[in-house]
Description:
By secondary structure, the protein is an all-alpha fold. It is built from 15 helices and no strands. The model has no long low-confidence stretch (mean pLDDT 88).
Amino acid sequence: xxxxxxxxxxxxxxxxxxxxxxxxxxxxxxxxxxxxxxxxxxxxxxxxxxxxxxxxxxxxxxxxxxxxxxxxxxxxxxxxxxxxxxxxxxxxxxxxxxxxxxxxxxxxxxxxxxxxxxxxxxxxxxxxxxxxxxxxxxxxxxxxxxxxxxxxxxxxxxxxxxxxxxxxxxxxxxxxxxxxxxxxxxxxxxxxxxxxxxxxxxxxxxxxxxxxxxxxxxxxxxxxxxxxxxxxxxxxxxxxxxxxxxxxxxxxxxxxxxxxxxxxxxxxxxxxxxxxxxxxxxxxxxxxxxxxxxxxxxxx
Length: 300
């Protein structure tokens, strides 16, 4: 099977979990048969992401490392930069002390991208790298620095018309304004409402996170019933799209909302459902947080 035909077939299979498993098998069979290193690299690049979507963390990392090594050998700088971006996100989420290792990879990516300042493909990789750097700094509580990298990425998105990433970054920026260091709730709400419209029209996968952030904002404004409405909408959209991480985030927010309402039994139910998904996804930071939350609720 030609690589272009194969990749088209795999792309069409990536909508459902059962199809993801078929795509994984097709690509692994292709790797055994192919003699072209370039074709193998393209297959490995996709396979690393499929294994991650399936929650096969060790297998995903194995393919990331194989891909990085092969891209470097073949001097495929664009694929190398793209894999480094995805791997830095992976390291940040799944490794202990991953933030430090993730930042190291980001610096490598940005150095590669600086050599191609007018190439749109490299600019898109740079935007993704800036977004991951913003996420790492956000997780470390460095909100001002995080905002700077989100805004730099947003500026580039608008320059090249990268709407999908613009929507994601606007949600990230709104999230910064919601946090205690800023408390710019009106500004955050304005951004979220405008971005929700764009997401509905152009990038539905970002909808659950945006709806969740509206829910978080309303919790901070002590508008708990409205927060519940946004969280429930996020849950519905997540389940319709079969987006498990977003579903877990909506369930977690509903747990927080029912805790605010002093309905601890319902809060525990939602936290347990979220925890189950996070464990399956091996989302270690969220697992740790929710296990502590459940422990507190049991003590209460």
